[in-house]
Amino acid sequence: MALSTLRIACDDAGPADAQATPTQPLSFDLGAIFQRAALVDDLAAIEQLLVRRADSRAPLLTAAGVHTIGAGGKRLRAALVLAAARLGHYDFERASHPAAAVELLHAASLVHDDLVDHTMRRRGHITIHTRWDNSVALLLGDYFFALSANELATEPDPRIIRFYATAVQTIVEGELSPVTQLDPLDVALAQYRYKIGCKTAALFEVACKAGIAVAGGTDAQIEALGRFGYDLGLAFQIVDDVLDFIGDERALGKPAGNDLREGTWTLPLIYAVAEGASSQLRELARTLRPPTAERAPELLSAVIASGGITRAMEEAHATAVRASDQLACFPPSATTYALAEICDFVLSRQS
């Protein structure tokens, strides 16, 4: 059953938008979801804001910033801020700042991540350090971090900047906490879940918490939407890691099996090793050496054949259900339905 068909209701709730809640599951295309949630115009305004923010007094920094913003992206984190704010007293002007801030934080982390990992392409576009050099990438990431902080500078609720500062600390800590072993299973799972909790879930969490906080949400509502965002982020990253094994290279903008080739150990591989059915996988778990280009296709096939993809997707689904359950703290509305649909989108996406 699609998560968006689940009943979303609660006795103790805050203000909600008055649009009727759809009763049948609809397309899980993200653009269609945004359209039904009446977020399209506001997200277009956020996009324009991001382009304006990329304009710097340093021409090289402007060019690199426009290149990064222009590469696009789902803007899912900004959408989560705006959707969360719609569950309270919605004020776009106020919500626009944390929405832009979370996208600038995300962009900064990707620029630095690509630099650290020597990634050549991102979303099908040449990365900053590849097109220019390492110094430009380092400084652009720093600049985006500063722009993000500036977006929050006039926010009257001091909790918001604290939410974001904590998220940045968490992201950095996670970058220095890789998965270092593939067995025993419990240790590998703990390392993986911590890693993706820091790397991805932290920004989803802060987007949801900031959105409802600026809209006057209660502490209980902030906590519930924070848990929603965190679990949604976990599910998003698990699916992302699955797509690295089975996704279309043109849609992903990077080669299939890229994580495996770089020695980044993710959930499908962890579960595949736990099955112990493949000698190649047992050897990889013992040596922890990334495969050669020639051996990588064999290992990709072994992960799929072992059921690693299936088990990873089962965990992603269970995590998305856990996220959707948090929406019970709000009365049914077009916005709660859209947030549940986003859970469905995360599970069904192809890139």
- Spatial strand sequence of the major β-sheet: 1-2
Instruction: Give me the CATH superfamily.
Output: Farnesyl Diphosphate Synthase
Q: What's the rounded overall pLDDT mean?
A: 89
CATH class reads: Mainly Alpha
Poorly predicted runs of 5 or more residues? 6-26
What is the number of strand segments? 2
- Can you tell me the CATH architecture? Orthogonal Bundle
Estimate nothing, just give the exact number of structural domains.
Answer: 1
Tell me what portion of residues adopts beta-strand conformation. Answer: under 5%
Element-by-element helix/strand order: HHHHHEEHHHHHHHHHHHH
Report on the architecture of this protein.
The protein is mainly alpha-helical. It has one domain (25-348): Farnesyl Diphosphate Synthase (Orthogonal Bundle), CATH 1.10.600. Helices cover 68% and strands 1% of the residues. It contains 17 helices and two strands. The chain has helices at 30-36, 40-53, 59-70, 76-86, 92-117, 128-131, 134-151, 158-175, 185-214, 219-246, 249-252, 258-262, 267-275, 279-287, 296-305, 308-325, 334-348; strands at 121-122, 125-126. The chain has a two-stranded antiparallel ribbon with strand order 1-2. A hairpin with a 2-residue loop joins strand 1 and strand 2. Helix 4 (76-86) packs antiparallel against helix 5 (92-117), helix 8 runs antiparallel to helix 9 (185-214) and helix 13 (267-275) crosses helix 16 (308-325). The model is unreliable at 6-26 (pLDDT under 50).
